[in-house]
Design goal:
single chain, alpha+beta, Creatine Amidinohydrolase, Chain A, domain 1, Creatine Amidinohydrolase, 2 domains, six-stranded mixed beta sheet, four-stranded mixed beta sheet, 24% strand, elongated
Length: 355
């Protein structure tokens, strides 16, 4: 349990005049990043913040919840209803996160408050904003996750024997599992014409041409995210030039990521140089979730602040022909942007003599 984070939550409640905040996880979720952030608990349950934080969890999760040093209550139908009823009792303004509460859970809360004049307020965006600036410990976890993925990338390059995209994706997942960690998301491995599909599901043979590797892992729940593009075979001068141009734009955009910079300005800078072949947002925040605040898009209203961790990932794609993407995880500091992913970004050729 982090006292500073809970104090920030109490300040938010005071600002929004909230009597209580209730955060939930649905059956489909493996956990709730906000509950994890405020309590250190990664699992299914309900978090209630009134005067003091309370975790309501199942018998299976009870021992794990006790280790967070947050008041934990064994979850049974009776206890759960009693906890919620007591938390909502006399509460006029109730904070919830609409992005994580299920319809059945919301209906449960509405049923309890049916006779009162309680009103619900979505505080999801504000909770995510509280998580945007990272503490020293959080930065350390992301740094470690990035370093692990750098190591996996070097293993891939130095021992490239892969014939199928799925084979390479499985190798990445295996290496992450061998370290007792979880992946941040399903690895993207796309080669040849498949590389033009931004979120390609590894399935085909590794073909001649550009080969995109996009993957990350979690350390203590904190994610890393990195993309490198290799070339299978011998690239043409045109292909070398395309890659070199994208790398220059990626580096120049990254160097503009300073405290106080508008995220939309960064996206605009890259988009003006890459044109229509750049088909997705420039990047996103990284932390307990692989996509969180700030949002680096053309319509974003977010502004970079000290100790935010973001990705810078411009790309160019031509449908059915090729795709190139280069991505770093970056820490925003007073002195400027600091790359946490350190894998080489020069164009590396695989099987140059054989193709």
């Amino acid at each position: 349990m982090n006292k500073t984070r809970l104090d920030n939550l109490k300040k938010l409640m005071k600002q929004r005049k909230l009597d209580v905040v209730i955060l939930t996880t649905s059956r489909e979720q493996e956990g709730n990043a906000n509950i994890n952030y405020f309590t250190g608990f990664r699992g299914n349950g309900i978090f209630v913040m009134k005067k003091e934080p309370v975790l309501v969890v199942s018998a299976i999760e009870f021992e794990k919840a006790k280790k967070t040093k947050t008041k934990s209550i064994l979850l049974t139908k009776i206890t759960r209803k009693e906890v919620l009823k007591k938390a909502i009792e006399n509460a006029k303004r109730i904070g919830i996160d609409k992005s994580s509460i299920s319809l059945s859970q919301f209906e449960e809360l509405r049923k309890i408050t049916r006779k009162s004049k309680s009103k619900f307020y979505d505080v999801g965006k504000e909770l995510v904003n509280l998580r945007a600036g990272k503490e020293k410990e959080e930065i350390g976890f992301v740094k470690k996750a990035c370093a692990i993925c750098d190591g996996i990338f070097l293993e891939i390059v130095n021992n490239f024997r892969f014939k199928m995209e799925k084979e390479l994706a499985n190798f990445i997942e295996l290496k992450i599992m061998e370290k007792g960690l979880q992946k941040s998301f399903n690895p993207i491995v796309s080669s040849g014409k498949n590389s033009s599909d931004v979120h390609h599901n590894p399935s085909g043979k590794i073909e001649k041409g550009f080969l995109i590797l996009d993957f990350g892992c979690k350390v203590n729940g904190y994610c890393s995210d990195m993309t490198r593009t290799l070339y299978v075979g011998k690239p043409s001068e045109k292909e070398k030039k395309m890659y070199g141009s994208l790398l220059e734009i990626q580096e120049n955009t990254l160097n503009l990521a300073t405290v106080g910079k508008k995220c939309s300005q960064l996206d605009k800078f890259a988009r003006e140089k890459l044109g229509e072949k750049f088909s997705h947002n420039l990047g996103h925040g990284v932390g307990l979730e692989i996509h969180e605040q700030p949002n680096l898009s053309s319509i974003s209203k977010d502004i970079l602040g000290e100790n935010m961790i973001i990705t810078i990932e411009p790309g160019i794609y031509e449908e059915g022909k090729y795709g190139i993407r280069i991505e770093d995880t970056v820490l925003i500091t007073k002195k400027g942007p600091l790359k946490l992913t350190k894998s080489p970004k020069k164009l590396i050729c695989i099987n140059c003599r054989d193709k």
